[in-house]
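Try this one yourself first.
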């Protein structure tokens, strides 16, 4: 009688190469999609930067997609300069 030995079963391992490829592709995508530049901004002096504190009327200008507001009141864009000039005492006011 002859006994034939069966070969041991091979263990299947998980192939991580496709997952690593996807991770690197996502990394490259998000690096290229990110904005690395500085945001556009205007320098604004703080209240303590000047010699005196502001004592005049408030002048808050809001620019919205469909309107321009001066202190919360809608103003025509063409008349904005005149409306702000009416709130200033001298030409040197900030």
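Now uncover the answer:
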């Amino acid at each position: 009688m002859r006994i034939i030995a069966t070969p041991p079963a091979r263990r299947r391992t998980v192939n991580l190469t496709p997952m690593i490829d996807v991770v690197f592709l996502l990394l490259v995508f998000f690096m290229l999609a990110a904005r690395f530049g500085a945001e556009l901004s205007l320098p604004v002096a703080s209240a303590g930067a000047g010699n005196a504190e502001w004592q005049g009327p408030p002048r808050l200008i809001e620019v919205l997609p469909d309107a321009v507001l001066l202190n919360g009141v809608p103003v025509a864009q063409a008349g904005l300069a005149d409306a702000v000039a009416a709130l200033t005492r001298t030409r040197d006011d900030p």
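Discussion: Residues 20 and 27 are 10 Å apart (CA to CA). Helices lie at 17-33, 80-85.
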